[in-house]
């Protein structure tokens, strides 16, 4: 009987340990394990000791290492990568050199293998399914914890042209600590609003402001679009402007495009807009980059012709005053000459 109880106890202990490893996991390392491939930045190592990536039901924490670009934070203060019960990932990681990375196209299967692709404006396509890619964890999504029949290989997408093997990479820095490379809250992650500025709900790399909220003419409207943290790769951005009146009618629209590398400012003037009557309006802007990444902005402004009418009258008054002074001077001079 004692032997039976002892065996049952050992079994329960092992079962508990197995369940624990499925609910909180790390990335498997060794050989090619831990690497994904970016078509713009090269190999990304999710298995470094100092990166300390942890996967659990609440999401992914820790850092991945990108040679030549530094650390990528999987749980930044204004983003974070979440794990659904079925294994689908969502949300954004942050690299101070490459900007935001969208993990909504990545999943963890029942074998703990990462599959699919993450995307970003500067990192390009980060694939977990290529010949030498293999990011695997001992974590299992809740809905998949009891099934583990899929192949443990992450190689489903074929070889990437010109793709080296991870073994040929320079090793990750053995004594580097992620927090010395990227602070917990970087300037890009704690942006404060300027007047007339609305930020996208998730991404903070594009901002829109206008010089003045009240103008005398729509042709005096000046919009400034600031691009930040776009990484080192030139990124084409399509920009769509429109002006909407108080009734919701679109009275003007145009499309522009720029190529941004790291950062830039686009100044847009509306000199080609037909004169609009006084009233309340909204400037709308939509940006599109990396095929499917969109941001939307709206800034209200007012047209009041009276605000621009005072300045000419000031100059007219100054001119009249000057003429009066000159006339007074000449009259006084003539009187002095006559007295002489």
TrEMBL record:
Sequence ranges of Low complexity compositional bias: 141-154, 177-189
Region named Disordered: 141-196
Taxonomy, superkingdom: Bacteria
Signal peptide as annotated in the record: 1-20
Keywords: Membrane, Signal, Transmembrane, Transmembrane helix
Residue spans crossing the bilayer: 313-332
Name used for this protein in its record: Bacterial Ig-like domain-containing protein
Native source species: Candidatus Kaiserbacteria bacterium RIFCSPHIGHO2_02_FULL_50_50
Organism phylogeny: Bacteria, Candidatus Kaiseribacteriota
């Amino acid at each position: 009987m004692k032997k039976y109880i002892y065996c049952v106890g050992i079994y329960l202990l092992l079962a508990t340990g197995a369940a624990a490893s499925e609910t909180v996991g790390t990335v498997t390392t060794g050989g090619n394990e831990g690497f994904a491939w970016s078509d713009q930045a090269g190999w990304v190592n999710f298995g470094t000791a100092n990166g300390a990536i942890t996967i659990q039901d609440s999401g992914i924490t820790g850092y991945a290492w990108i040679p030549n670009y530094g650390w990528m934070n999987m749980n930044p203060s204004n983003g974070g990568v979440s794990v659904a019960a079925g294994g689908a990932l969502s949300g954004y990681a942050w690299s101070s050199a490459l900007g935001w990375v969208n993990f909504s196209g990545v999943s963890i299967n029942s074998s703990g293998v990462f599959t699919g692709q993450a995307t970003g404006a500067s990192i390009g396509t980060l694939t977990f399914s290529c010949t030498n890619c293999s990011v695997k964890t001992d974590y299992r999504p809740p809905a998949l914890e009891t099934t583990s029949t899929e192949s443990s290989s992450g190689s489903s997408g074929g070889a990437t042209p010109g793709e080296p093997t991870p073994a040929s990479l320079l090793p990750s820095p053995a004594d580097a600590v992620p927090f010395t490379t990227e602070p917990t809250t970087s300037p890009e992650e704690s942006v404060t609003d300027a007047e007339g500025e609305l930020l996208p709900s998730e991404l903070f790399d594009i901002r829109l402001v206008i010089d003045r909220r009240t103008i005398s003419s729509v042709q005096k409207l000046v919009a400034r679009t600031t691009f930040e943290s776009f990484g080192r790769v030139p990124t084409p951005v399509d920009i769509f402007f429109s002006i909407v009146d108080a009734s919701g009618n679109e009275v003007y629209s145009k499309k522009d495009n720029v190529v941004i590398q790291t950062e830039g400012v686009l100044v847009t003037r509306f000199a080609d807009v037909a004169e609009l009557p006084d009233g309340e309006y909204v400037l709308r802007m939509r940006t599109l980059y990396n095929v499917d990444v969109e941001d939307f902005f709206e800034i209200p402004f007012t047209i009041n012709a009276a605000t621009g009418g005072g300045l000419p009258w000031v100059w007219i008054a100054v001119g009249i005053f000057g003429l009066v002074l000159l006339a007074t001077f000449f009259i006084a001079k003539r009187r002095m000459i006559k007295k002489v």
